[in-house]
Amino acid sequence: MTRLQLQHAEFKQLLDELEHSLSMRRIEMSDVRAAHLKLVGFATNHFAEEEREMETINYPIPALTEHQTSHFEFMRRLGGLLSDAEASQDPTNRTLDTVLFLNSWIRKHGPEHDQPLIDALQGGVPEPG
Ligand SMILES: [Fe+2]
Q1: Listed residue (69, 93, 71) closest to 81, CA to CA
Q2: Which residues have a Cβ under 8 Å from the Cβ of 11 and sit 6 or more positions away?
Q3: The CATH number of the domain where 14 resides is what?
Q4: In this structure, is residue 126 part of a structural domain?
Q5: CB-based contact 58:127 (threshold 8 Å)
Q6: For residues 114 and 8, is the Cβ–Cβ distance under 8 A?
Q7: Alpha-carbon span 85 to 96, nearest angstrom
Q8: Is 127 inside any structural domain?
Q9: Structural domain of residue 63, as residue ranges?
Q10: Could you read off the pLDDT of 28-80 as tens digits, one per residue?
Q11: C-alpha 111 – ligand 1 centre gap (Å)
Q12: How much distance in Å is there from the Cα of 38 to the middle of ligand 1?
């Protein structure tokens, strides 16, 4: 497995654990804060690494921009996680919706954006368009 693939596995695991805790209602506000902080740190570094890799190999601009836009969308929704939890008496309520979104995001983002990048890193840059 490549470094990026290992990071993807860890990323999925972080989100799965959070979804599981929320759906089992085994979570406190302090856990939501800790999970949020961990995800922000992880995603920031991971996205930056992917974006650096794309620049290094002169990845086609449209694909690079779409990939970055998708990362931005994740960070925007992740930012809402804490405000959702804080706005609600019960942190599991609205927070679970956001985590379900983040989990479906990662399952869509992987095949659409990450896999083509991994292929390009392993075998050359895809044809533009
Ligand atoms: Fe990505």
Answers
A1: 93
A2: 42, 43, 46, 106
A3: 1.20.120.50
A4: no
A5: no
A6: yes
A7: 9
A8: no
A9: 3-20+27-121
A10: 888 889 999 999 999 999 999 999 999 999 999 999 999 999 999 999 999 98
A11: 10
A12: 17
